Amino acid sequence: MTKRSSLTRRGTSARAAARARRHLRVRKKVRGTPERPRLVVTRSLKHIVAQLVDDTKGITLASASTLDVSIRGEEGKKTEKSHLTGKLLAERAKAAGITAVVFDRGGYRYHGRVAALADGAREGGLEF
Fold this sequence. Notes:
Elements: H1 14-27, E1 38-43, E2 48-54, E3 59-65, H2 69-72, H3 78-95, E4 102-104, H4 113-123
Parallel strand pairs: 1-4
Antiparallel strand pairs: 1-2, 2-3
Helix pairs in contact: 3-4
């Protein structure tokens, strides 16, 4: 019998538990404020979701996803769609009056789709 982490529950994999531990380690240092919200990335096998969160109030200020109608119909690879998602989030953030954010990679490596989303957000005008 293997030793089970406190983060693993019945039905969750060791890989998901390791990501949860990494995310908690990142979240200890990264905090979103109304002036500089936290850009949270959530990734699945098919889609990617990004949200701007104000941790003081616990609310989402803006969000974008590959499930949005404007991106879902686009042709291209998942990395390209992630880049478009970052641009869309930057547009919505500008409309909400947000120019600077802190990046929360969510325990994922800063590589591939996560990096493409960050590059798209920077290209759209967000600073982090």
